[in-house]
């Protein structure tokens, strides 16, 4: 039996695309905090960015904290743990792709980007650009959130 996926879903679940989103998020986080992003936090990025309903509700700028946004959007908080679990293998594969292609480096303190990822404005479509912009926002949120608090707020176990 052949697996026929919708082209958009296939593109969104491409590990190179996941690696790009992770690198974009890590770059935004390290730029904001001046330190590497703890690697477990990377598992929170894609469940925020890939589902269209959550991505649509994310703010365009980090004027709200993650906890304030979650308070205003309890429907996303309620499904986040399930989405994070469902995307864990994809996140792992995307992390491996990012490291293999030198988009991310792993240090003792966490994840860093050895080079700046391409800006969202260079993306081939508006959906890709939107995903990249939101990945940057999530990175800025994660830069200032204690990882254990973020996991706790989202109902996810590392």
Q: Would you kindly provide a written description of the structure presented here, covering whatever features stand out?
A:
By secondary structure, the protein is mainly α. The protein is built from eight helices and two strands, in the order H-H-H-H-H-H-E-E-H-H. Strands 1-2 form a two-stranded antiparallel sheet. Helix 2 packs across helix 6 and helix 2 packs across helix 7. The longest helix is centred in the middle third of the chain and has 27 residues. The protein is globular. The N terminus is likely disordered.
Summarize the structure.
This protein is mainly alpha-helical and 158 residues long. The protein has helices at residues 7-12, 15-33, 45-49, 52-57, 66-72, 74-100, 126-144, 147-154, and strands at residues 105-107, 110-112.
Write the topology of this structure.
Blueprint: H1 7-12, H2 15-33, H3 45-49, H4 52-57, H5 66-72, H6 74-100, E1 105-107, E2 110-112, H7 126-144, H8 147-154
Antiparallel strand pairs: 1-2
- SSE string, helices as H and strands as E: HHHHHHEEHH
Largest sheet: 2 strands, antiparallel
Terminal CA distance:
35 Å
Low-confidence stretches: 1-8
User: What class would the helix/strand composition place it in?
Assistant: mainly alpha
Any idea what the radius of gyration is?
Answer: 15 Å
Mean pLDDT: 90
Instruction: Tell me the number of helical segments per DSSP (H or I, 4 or more residues long).
Output: 8
Q: What is the beta-strand fraction?
A: under 5%
The percentage helix is 55-70%
What general form does the structure show? Answer: globular
Largest sheet, spatial ordering of strands:
1-2
Query: How many beta-strand segments?
Result: 2
């Amino acid at each position: 039996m052949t697996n026929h996926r919708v082209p958009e879903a296939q593109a969104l679940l491409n590990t190179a695309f996941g690696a790009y989103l992770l690198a974009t998020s890590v770059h935004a986080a390290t730029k904001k905090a001046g330190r590497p992003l703890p690697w477990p936090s990377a598992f929170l990025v894609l469940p925020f960015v890939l589902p269209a309903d959550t991505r649509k509700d994310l703010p365009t700028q980090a004027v709200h904290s993650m906890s304030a946004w979650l308070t205003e959007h309890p429907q996303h908080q309620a499904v986040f743990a399930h989405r994070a679990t469902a995307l864990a293998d994809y996140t792992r594969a995307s992390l491996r792709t990012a490291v293999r292609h030198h988009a991310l480096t792993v240090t003792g303190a966490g994840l860093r980007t050895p080079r700046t990822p391409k800006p969202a404005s260079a993306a081939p479509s508006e959906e890709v650009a939107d995903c990249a912009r939101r990945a940057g926002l999530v990175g800025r949120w994660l830069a200032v959130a204690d990882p254990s608090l973020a996991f706790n707020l989202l109902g996810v176990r590392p």
